[in-house]
Each structure stands twice: as structure tokens, then as C-alpha cells.
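Continued from yesterday's entry.
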Amino acid sequence: MMETQEQRYVAMSIDPKVTRVEVEVFTWDVKGMGRSPSGHRVYDPADTRTRSGTAVKVYTDAGVVGEYVQGYGLPTRPNPEEIASIGRWLIGRSALEREPVYERFRNLRHSYGTVDIVLWDVAAKLMEVPIYRLLGGYRRRLPAYASTVFGANSGPLSTPESYADFAEQCYELGYRAYKIHPYPWEDIQTHIDTVLAVGKRVGGKMDLMLDSICLYRTFADAVKVGKACDEAGFYWYEDPYSDGGVTPFSHEKLRELIRTPLLQGEKTHSLQERMALVLAKATDFVRGEVAGEGITGTLKMAHAAESVGLDIELHGAGPAQRHTMAALRNSNYYEVSVVHPDLRDLEPPVYKEGYESGLDGCKDGYVMVPEGPGLGVVYDWDYIGSHSQGKIVVSA
């Protein structure tokens, strides 16, 4: 025990300089992922989609190597050339000074966010603690919700009743919260029927959410679905309609007409834009985007929300999201995204030694925060290398 403490005192006196940055793009196949006629990702058992991920290593002269792999296919991907550009700026600089990186590169969003997460991995590994402890440490288990894919043309998640069926399956798996990403049906009534069917089946047993991914074309349609959420007692209503979730005035009006709390902010691109929604009373919960704004930017948003008494809900899944949420008091649910009865995990098989993602990674309604140093996960670099589409190396 004494030796470990001495090692930590030594670590505290070290200022690790960045010596090398590696950025590698790799691919993996997802069987069952297709596209709807409108272009949305939906379940299709006859289709297989090739997804791409980004793996980054930051080497330091202290011998500590930061690692992060962003696998889940978010709408915006990190740009390898942008990451390499940030890497060139980092060479010779302290890996612990994250604030100048935020100030200089935050507008690059997912590219910046990826680098920021790696730098937090370096800092926590240097101290031999998990990131969430370095951030303050509030909890070790995170309540989780099952977040569906955008439905299907047939079979599970193709009808209102099949969404309710899957909600019951998730309840049996231990989940106590469930979010609908509806199939992009043209008629608004099917969306309403889905909300009501799920509410009738599991309302009162599960916290229910609707993320309509800005599908609804008019304010009137958004109000109609919102009133259905009221009737079914939904927990939140996310990104209602096609203004993209960025118009404060109309969402403040929507809040006047429905009771279900709104969750906004995913479609905005900065702390300032999210706070503009908050201060305009255009949202009740605020989105946090760890993949986009990194841990540093997400903490800023979480503390800003806390200052006005609001909660932040983090978008997407992964070890970085788990560590960030584990350090926050004002956050309610971890998103297990995106899942389907026959498509249980979109993550690439890059995790070793026990990290569980996807639908079956939730136990008794919770997911665990990795306890190893840094992000606390061990990546399968052999798999990444064997599926590589190219690597950029930046060094002194």
C-alpha cells in the first residue's frame, strides 16, 4: 500500500510531454443494419453495413500511453486529419494541460472530443486511478435505459405493439427505462399509437422516453405527439421536430402546451448554444455530448446546468460516457444505444477483459463503470490492426 502511495506522489510531480500521436481508422460489419427509404438507419435482417471506427494513441515521455477507440457509428465521425493536426500541435506539450486544447480546438467537435478523452486517459493512468475518480467520483453503478434503433419495415419494432413487446423484454432484462426511436413512418398517428401502446404496456414500471430525431415536419405534429406523451406519462420528449432542435422560441411555446419535459441540445454545437436553450426556457433537460465535446466540455455543460438546477443527460454509450456520468450528480440515465431484439450491440469487438456493451451489458438495471486506470478498458489492438484502413503517425 505504501509503495503505491509513493508511486502516486512521484506521478504527481511528473509533467508528461506528448511525443507521438497515432490515429487509425478501422472497419467492422454490422449484420442487420440497413436504411429506410428516407435514409434513416433501421433494422434490416437482409442487410449488412460496414461501419468505421477511430482508434487513437497518445504517447508521452513518462511512458504513459493514452488510448481511446470511438466505435459506435454516431452521425458525425472524428476526422483523422483533424486529429492528426491536433496531435502536431500537442507534440512537446504537456499531456495534462487540457484547457488550452479545449480553447484552441473545441470547434472541431468530435475530433477534439476524441483527443480530449485520450488526454484524460493519460492523466488517470499517471495517477493509477479510473477517470471517474479523477473527476471527483460520485457513483460506481449507473442506471441505464434501452435505446432502440429506428425500427424496421417488418418484424420487431415495425408496429406500435412490437415496440411495446420489446419494452417488456427490456423490463425482463432488468431495465427500468426505455427510449423509442420510432421508425420514420409518414403518418403521425402511428407515432402517437406507438407512444400510447408502450405507455399502456409498461407505464408505471419503466421511465419512458421518445426521441423523434426531428422527424415531425410541423409544430402541430410535435404538439400532437407531445400530448400523447402526456397521456402515457413519458419521462422526456427529445428533439421533437424538423427545425433540428435549435429554435428556442418554438420549443418554449411547446413547453407551454404539453406537460412532458423536453430534452434538447443534441443538435447544437457548443456550451453557449445549449445554455441559450436553457436560458430561453426551451428545454427541461440538457444534452451532453462526450464524443463531441470531450470530457472537458461535457463537465463545463454539466456544471452550467447544475448552476440553474437542471439535469444533463449524456448522449451515446461507451467507457468515456460511463466515467463522465459517474462523476455527475445531476444526471439520471446511461444510454445503452442503439438496440433491437435481434441487433443487441452495434459496438465493434474491440474490448477485452470483461467490458460489456450493448443490450446484455446491463445487470439489474445498471451498467458498471470500469475500475482500471484511465478509461479502465483493454482494447484489442490486434483486431483493430487487422481491420485497419490506414494509420496516421505524428511524432517529434
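--- second protein ---
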Amino acid sequence: MRRLRWMTVAVVLMLGVGYACSQQAASVKLYDRDPAQALNAELQILEDTADWTVYHVLYDSTNGQRVPALLGLPKTGHPPHSVIMVQHGLGGEKDTEYVRLPALGLAQAGYATLRIDACSHGERATTGDDRQMMARVISMVQQGGWVQSIVDMRRGLDYLATRDDIDMNRVGYVGVSMGAIMGGVLCGVEERVKAAVLILGGSLGGFMPGLLDAIDPANYIASFSPRPLLMLNGKTDPLIPPAAAQRLYDAATDPKRIVWYDTGHTVPVDEAVKELTSFLQEHVPLTSAP
């Protein structure tokens, strides 16, 4: 029943987004924002431990949106810190366990992290009840929340750029499921991301060919080159089928690598963490080059 529910949500998402985007072709301009727009950022300490200090952040984005985020600053290393944006999937929010735990692990390694709530998720949800998931997805699509969320990520990078304790020359991205699909677009339109890990992501083109061009990461990911890309996917994923993942991988250009696991819409945590940590340490170094 749970798998059926999530597959139903996925179908509704594809149909709704397809309807909303059917008159739009892939365009970088769709994700434009004014980097000079005032952020009006508010910051409040949420957690302070031996590993990190986590701040609750609010900042202004386009279309009158006020974006909630979590900024984690590591207790290891010295500023300015390398930073990784970690983005949740459809069924999560910025502090969901599968986002929080990697962020904590990255902090322990010495990375700063930024996690935002996508539109209609977390603090931005119109309903916080998982039983209303389909209503939340439809609302997100009808209000342009898919595109808005990617713009909000760019505004999050604008916010990080105002901080003296963040090195914007060392920025990485980790996205899971919906966060990976959105991340494929972000990487193609945002030059500040230096390396990306897309977990359980794929192209949307195979679901409704031609109707999802505006938001299909396969139409943007080639522009990410020559920056490195790592994809982690399941061989039997029912939500993001292997063919969809392969389409996204094929659309990307070198340097790129994909790791296939004998899993569905999940990855083995220990193995995946090892892969992404090794990748990030190589391509988003913790210290600036001398």
C-alpha cells in the first residue's frame, strides 16, 4: 500500500507538472533571479553541540517568498568553510533524518551545510499531514513551486555569499530524489556549484516526452561540465526507473560517474555515504589551494 501511494503521488506530480509546463520549453531564464535583491536575512541559533552550530535562517526570494533554511557551521576546521547544499525529497523537509544525518556527517568532516525547505514542504507546507501528500504536490505544481524551489536554492547561495565564514569557491550539492531532480537543473543554471551528488534522481522526459522540458534536468545538466557529477541510483527503483536515471546520466558530459545499487528507491546508507564523502573531499576540498 505504501509503495502504491507513493507511485500515485509520482503520477500526480508528473501529470500536474506536465500540464503546468506544457507551454514552456527548457530555458535558463525560467530560473533567473536578481542577485542584488535584498535578502533581509534573519538568523537564530537552533542547536549548538560539539560537532556543529545550527542556525535557523529566513531570507527573501523571488515572488514574495520567504525561505526557511538550516545553516550548519562545523566545529572542525577554520573559516571560511567549504559548504554543501543538501536538499530533501518529495516526502521530506530540511530536517528529515535522511537529510540531517548526512549534514551532520559533513559537519563532522569540516563542511558547512545549507538545507532549505522546498515549496509546500516543512515550514512552507499548507498541510503538515502526510495523508494529504497528493494535495501538497498539486498545490506545489499549480503555484509554480517546482521552479520556485530551484530559484530559492540560488537565493540560498546568494545568502551564503554574504557570509565571511563561507568560501564560495568551494560549494557542493547533494540532493535526494526530488532534490536530485531539482539539483540537476540547479547545476545547469548555477555556476557556483563546483561538484554535485544526485541520489535517486533521473530525467523526467521519459514520463511525458516533450511536456516536461522546462523542468527536466536532462535539458540542463550538460552545462554543468566540466564540473564533476556523481549519481547514485537503485537498479529496481519503481519511482525513478533505471531508464530515467540513465537518460540523465547520458545527458551529462564528463567528468561523470554513476553507481548502481541492488535497491529500489533507496541506497545502502554506509556505502552511499562513503561514495559521496570521498567524492566531495576530492572535488570540494576543505581547504583552499595554496
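Residues 72 and 134 are 31 Å apart (CA to CA). The chain has one domain: 2-24+41-283. Will compare against the first tomorrow.
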